[in-house]
Amino acid sequence: MDMLQVFEDEFPTHEFYAWSPLSFARPTQLTTSPVHKWAWDALPFYKASFLYTVVGSDPNHHRGGEWLFEVTIDTDDVDFSTFKGEPDAAKFPDAEMTDSTVKLVAWKSTGNGTFNWYHDLWNRGEWPTTDDVAFTQPNYPVQSLSLTVRLDDLPDREAALALVARFKAATSRELGLAHT
After folding, report:
1. In a domain? residue 65
2. Residue 110: inside a domain, yes or no?
3. What does the pLDDT look like over 119-137, one tens digit per residue?
């Protein structure tokens, strides 16, 4: 969470909007028994994305130039779809054989739009396929750009700040974003 706080601090024009696990559901509600749920739902930050919108903006109505900031933490690149039923962690590859990554993504509205950042774009849109290159969404007036690094390449605050600097440079160059 310390690294996530560093990323939040470096984008003061944005505020927390939503978070979501990537490979499974959120933990059960207070009055729902977790016994009959998928065990992986109890580990919501194992693979998760954190979304930040422009301070005071409406997540359902976008003006051209507004952008969504995303931090994705994938603590293990095991492909859950290769398992039938619930994945058995004992059958995962050794940790040395997997990658853990942090991905920063900018989703920039290229025109006025009425769609929800999370429910529509994040859940139904397409992610950039190549880092450091602008990607145009086929179904939304949005361009996006991602930058992915291995988690072990971010050992401290200085490394996280260097990643932010690279991300800001790439989004300025490719998406025309101005960072303060």
Report:
1. yes
2. yes
3. 898 888 898 989 999 999 9
How many separate domains does the chain show? 1
> Residue 85: which of 41, 35, 27, 38 has the closest Cα?
38
Q: What is the pTM of this model?
A: 0.83
Tokens representing residue 50 in the block: 């954190």
Q: What is the token pair recorded at 48? A: 């998760």
Q: Which domain holds residue 88?
A: 2-175
Secondary structure (H, E, C), the chain: CHHHHHHHHCCCCEEEEEEEECCCCCCCCCCCCHHHCCHHHHCCCCEEEEEEEECCCECCEECCCCEEEEEEEECCCCCHHHCCCCCCHHHCCCHHHCCCEEEEEEEEECCCECCCHHHHHHHHCCCCCCCCCCEECCCCCEEEEEEEEEHHHCCCHHHHHHHHHHHHHHHHHHHCCCCC
What span, in angstroms and rounded, lies between the C-alpha atoms of 179 and 80? Answer: 37
Sequence length of the chain is 180
